[in-house]
Amino acid sequence: MHNAVRALIVTAIVGLSRPAVAEPVHITGGYMETQIFASLARGLFEGEDFSLGFGADAFAANVIRQCSPCTPGTWVDLGATFNFPRSSGTAVVDGVTYPRIFLEMTGTFTAPPIQINGAETVTRMSPFSYSGTITGFLIDPWVVGSPDPVFTKTLFGQGTASATFLYLNLQENGPLFTGTDLRYDFSSPAAVPEPATLLLCGTGTAVLALRRRRQSRKTS
Q1: What would the mean pLDDT of 72-93 be, rounded to a whole number?
Q2: Where are the domains of the chain?
């Protein structure tokens, strides 16, 4: 009996000592934009009880590695990665407002390949998904060392990526495209109807069909 009680006490203590695992934040609004060759990005991520406006260093677009510049007909993707986690901005996290916050920010934007063609400057669009993490500090960890973080969050989201490719008709090398602007606009996925809603819709459709049949019989 005493052993059983001790086991319960130990289990309770261990459970209390474990930090609560924070739920991932779904980014349903906002944007991020960059000049493809500048490697600097700025953006606004918005979710439930969450907001983050930031500027980030060393943001790398995949198109730079795939072609720069690109010949017509080239397939590229509009994905990108935070190559260096240093960033800063303002945030609202779990109801707490941070007028100035320093961040270790990682993450990847993933997008399917698209083809660049034509004979003029074009803007291409593609769906994207994003996943990453942020850790917030009240003082700059890149200056003072390793301060204690005030929060750590896992982020995910999706939306539409768009990129502008400047058309250059060079006589020596032929026509080329060079990427200029890259932007990610987050959006909330369309709501999926619940089974009860689907049942009501199906029942309503059946009732309408039955009424139409009765009306057609009366007129005939």
Answers
A1: 94
A2: 25-211
